[in-house]
Amino acid sequence: MSATTPGAISTADPGRRASPAGAADDAWPAGPLLAYCGDDFTGSTDVMDAFSAAGVPTVLFLSPPGPQWLARFAGKRCIGLASTARSQSPAWMDEHLADGLRRLKAFGAPILQYKVCSTFDSSPTLGSIGRAIELGCALMPGRWSPMVVGAPRLKRYQAFGNLFAVADGVGYRLDRHPTMARHPVTPMAEADLRRHLGAQTRRRTELIDLAQLQAGLGEARRDALMGDDVPVVLLDVIDEATLAEVGRLVWQGRGAGLFSASSSGLQYALAAFWRQQGLLPAQPWLPEADAVDAIAIVSGSCSPVTADQIGWARAQGFAVQRLDIAEVLHADSDGAAAEIEINRLVTAAALALGDGRSPLVFSAEGPDDRAVTGFDALAAGAGLPRAAAATQVGLALAQVMRRLLDRVPALRRIVVAGGDSSGAVTSALDIAALGVEAGLAPGAPLCRAWSERPERDGLQLVLKGGQMGGPEFFGRVRQGRA
To answer: How many CB atoms lie within 10 A of CB 121?
Structure first.
């Protein structure tokens, strides 16, 4: 992306509303309002879901866009770039994430964001949010770096710096959450985000807590905390009132431009404040999609939420097939075992579609699945480091979906479950960009693919994070019903 690239994004905004009297500082400036780099592909579509429903035109690029794609999406107010940073090392971030953030900064948006998971998946060695903050703060002139993680619509809440998430209708502090406390890659052992982040960066970390927000002290505390050292300032969010107030503090405190490592809670907060100012429609809304006869699903998620969804699909007659990880990782020199396994699954899925059934290929069914508990042994047996073995599984799922789409051109709606799997699969499908087509569940919209390949252009897909959706989610995707 050249230095002249931002000129390809139009500053015209035909849908812009007049700012209320006395709110000139809160009105939208010309051009993009926010540019973000997602830490994974599912989280990247989560941002699109939040902003698109609110009425903020958003596009997500899956790789750095060329001039023709920039021209095609001129006028978008939010520009996204998906990445796989959540599963990468700080050294990888120094090269790839830094480049992505620099490209996004060139659009001139007043807020540059590194989008993090709302469950704060990260560690000092893998998906380091602290390293992302160091890279991002160096690019923007702001004297503070707000961090918004709570998102009530996703049932994520931050109180006095501690993160809580709901599972099966019950709220848990994140270090006691049934999934995140046992996450196979980045388990959450600390719910206080200041302490968790402190292991990843030495940057000063502060908090504007809910008591200060509710007492109207947020603005004074924000201004007092700002400094040349650009502190990270966490902002509590527990409900719609604190959400809108946090949006106000961020937007009015943007100055000449700031960097924020935040979940889609940042989008929900900004939209809530803009809605108060009359800049957005009063009611968030996304259209519903038409039903289709069948969909295809691949899942690399280890979440118990996804396990329940797989169980529901099996009971409802979906053609459910397990990916044999041992075969995919088989230590033969020519990859013949993996090729046989991939072809087996593609053939079974194509036959299922021919019978009007929806195929679902999965690598694990919950955190207690033998594929999860025995994965290290399988990787060792194949002579592979754990990370390389996990990558190989993702690539196998990607090949299953790619070959299935090539074999059954009539297949037009697919689902990928799992953040890392979503990155592997979409990267294999020759897709340039995504837009939101319809609403399904918070954080997991139905997207429309844009591609130079005619057979991929217009493909509908859902990139579902492990914690997203109810048990019947795959049925909702097939029926197109939110």
So the answer is: 24
pLDDT-based confidence at 215, cuts 50/70/90? very high
Judge if 378 and 456 occupy the same domain.
yes
* 441 and 304 share one domain: yes
* 262 within a domain of the structure (yes/no): yes
Q: Give the predicted TM-score (pTM) of the model.
A: 0.90
Amino acid at 383: G
Instruction: Give the H or E element holding residue 136.
Output: helix 129-137
Do 357 and 269 lie in one domain? The reply is no
Overall size of the chain counted in residues: 482
* Residue 434 domain flag: yes
Cα–Cα distance for residue pair 203/117, rounded to 1 Å: 20
- Shared domain for 35 and 164, answered yes or no, is yes
CATH number, domain of 120, equals: 3.40.50.10840
What is the number of helices (H) and of strands (E) in the chain? 18, 18
Residue in this structure with the two tokens 């803009």, named with its chain if needed: 274
Q: Which of residues 225, 244, 276 is at a domain's end?
A: 276
HSE, CB side, 13 Å, CA atoms: give it for residue 91.
0
H/E element, 145: strand 145-147
User: Hey, how many other C-beta atoms are within 10 angstroms of the C-beta on 91?
Assistant: 10
pLDDT tens per residue across span 1-54: 333 333 333 333 433 443 333 344 578 999 999 999 999 998 899 999 999 999
Q: How far apart are CA 443 and CA 51, in angstroms?
A: 11
Domain of 319, in residue numbers = 296-479
Interval 126-149: pLDDT, tens: 999 999 999 999 999 999 999 999
Res 265 pLDDT > 60: yes
AA letter at 300: G
Predicted pLDDT of residue 83: 95
Contact in structure between 183 and 121 (CB atoms under 8 Å): yes
Q: Are strands 359-362 and 34-38 parallel, antiparallel or unpaired?
A: unpaired
Give the CATH number of the domain where residue 338 resides: 3.40.980.20
User: What is the Cα–Cα distance from 34 to 69, expressed in whole angstroms?
Assistant: 18
Please give the backbone phi and psi of residue 406, each rounded to the nearest 5 degrees, phi first: -70, -35
Task: Phi first, then psi: give them for residue 413, nearest 5 degrees.
Answer: -140, 125
**Which of 321-335, 344-358, 367-381 has the least mean pLDDT?**
321-335
Tally of CB atoms within 10 A around 479: 16
Query: 94: which DSSP letter?
Result: I
Cα 462–Cα 463–Cα 466 angle in degrees, nearest 5? 125
The pLDDT of residue 481: 81
Put the strands of the sheet holding 205-208 in their side by side order: 145-147, 232-235, 205-208
First to last CA, the chain: 37
CA neighbor of 265 nearest in space, from 424, 46, 470, 459: 46
